[in-house]
Amino acid sequence: MSEKIVYTTAAVNTGARAGESHSPDHSYELNIDVPKEMGGKGDGTNPEQLFAMGYSACYHAALDHYKKEENIDNDSQVTLTVHLHKDPTDGGFKLSVEIEVGMKDLPEEKVKDLADKAHTFCPYSKATKGNINVTVKAVPYVEGK
Questions:
Q1: What is the pLDDT of residue 144?
Q2: Domain contains 145
């Protein structure tokens, strides 16, 4: 039995890290550029930023799933940091991720429990499991962050 596909999307890139990416229907387009830290101009977004944005939104949706399941309506925030490392095995690069979860007026132990559950449920977390180092931790909620 095959798994049911519920959504499909695509992106087109020209110019690699110094180019442009867009949806096939051109409803979403953005400039891609090498970060200044890597010798580029930094005049656009980069793949690591896009990955961080997508992963953080997907992870937060998984967190909301468990908050709803437990009737918790406290405000929450997810800060997902992507690191690009030199890979000594092939001279290329590899990623690691830090996920920090804060929830307003909730004990740190409860936040950590929900954060860990979300990590097992999030499709990005499932996709990266065993492939990149990902750490998940509870942090204080910062108003207006």
A1: 81
A2: no
As beta bridge partners, residue 60 has: none
pLDDT tier for residue 109 given thresholds of 50, 70 and 90: very high
* DSSP helix/strand/coil, 112: helix
CATH classification of the domain holding 26: 2.20.25.10
Residues 29-45 have pLDDT tens digits of 999 999 999 999 999 99
Is the Cβ–Cβ distance between 31 and 15 less than 8 Å?
Answer: no
Compute the distance between CA of residue 87 and CA of residue 26 in angstroms, rounded to an integer: 34
Q: Using CA atoms, how far apart are residues 68 and 83, in angstroms rounded to an integer?
A: 31
Q: pTM of this prediction?
A: 0.93
> Which two three-digit tokens encode residue 90?
């092939």
Same domain, 57 and 115: yes
**38 & 69 share domain:** no
Question: How far apart are the C-alpha atoms of 144 and 131, rounded to whole Å?
Answer: 33
The DSSP 8-state label assigned to residue 84 in this structure reads: E
